[in-house]
Design goal:
Chain A is built from no helices and eleven strands. Chain A is mainly β. Chain A is globular, with a radius of gyration of 13 Å. Chain B is built from no helices and eleven strands. Classes of the chains: A mainly beta, B mainly beta.
């Protein structure tokens, strides 16, 4: 079975500061890992995904994430936060032997001027 | 393409009432799923379908029914609504499970009194 844990339900940063959102996964088979973003009153949209190619994955809006098998982590980073990055971010895991996508509990990112 | 559409956007029910949340997609996706989103709990999978005529349970299926008679439509039925089903419901679709990107609808906000 697969699961994800997102550390920190709320993260606050200043505009221009580094964004780091943490995600650890559990999977008995090689996982596929995703980060989705949800802006207020909207559905979710894909930021980036890891599908066993490069371990450093670049996504939209300057975000990237690194798959670290030894740490079972897939943390999301952005070098310089922008006010428009304020949203809720969800880490999710799937696998080749399942059709299910399992989400973490989400991290709400606030960006202060 | 309209993508994934959901109706209604908002709904208020009384305990014991039944209703159907509609979901449709025009991308010819085989895989469709329903999630509920509750504060602090992220998105939890209710039911999913890997193609017309095939459905399966997710993490929280109790109190909900689904069917998939066409590729395009995947309605979610609440047979006897309970206050615990107050939530925001999202429908999603993709070409398949596994590593495929899921596309989300805008959500239905349901309140059960």
């Amino acid at each position: 079975a697969q699961s994800v844990t997102q550390l920190g339900s709320h993260v606050s940063v200043s505009e221009g500061a580094l964004v780091l959102l943490r995600c650890n996964y559990s999977s008995s088979v090689p996982p596929y890992l995703f980060w989705y973003v949800q802006y207020p009153n909207q559905g979710l949209q894909l930021l980036l995904k890891y599908t066993s190619a490069a371990t450093l994955v670049k996504g939209i809006n300057g975000f990237e994430a690194e798959f670290k098998k030894s740490e079972t982590s897939f943390h999301l980073t952005k070098p310089s936060a922008h006010m428009s990055d304020a949203a809720e971010y969800f880490c999710a895991v799937s696998a080749a032997n399942t059709d299910k996508l399992i989400f973490g509990t989400g991290t709400r990112l606030q960006v202060f001027p | 393409n309209a993508g994934v559409t959901q109706t209604p956007k908002f709904q208020v029910l009384k305990t014991g009432q039944s209703m159907t949340l509609q979901c449709a997609q025009d991308m010819n996706h085989e895989y469709m799923s329903w999630y509920r989103q509750d504060p602090g709990m992220g998105l939890r999978l209710i039911h999913y379908s890997v193609g017309a005529g095939i459905t399966d349970q997710g993490e929280v299926p109790n109190g909900y029914n689904v069917s998939r008679s066409t590729t395009e439509d995947f309605p979610l039925r609440l047979l006897s609504a309970a206050p615990s089903q107050t939530s925001v419901y999202f429908c999603a679709s993709s070409y398949s499970g596994g590593f495929q990107t899921q596309y989300f609808g805008p959500g239905t906000r349901l309140t059960v009194l």
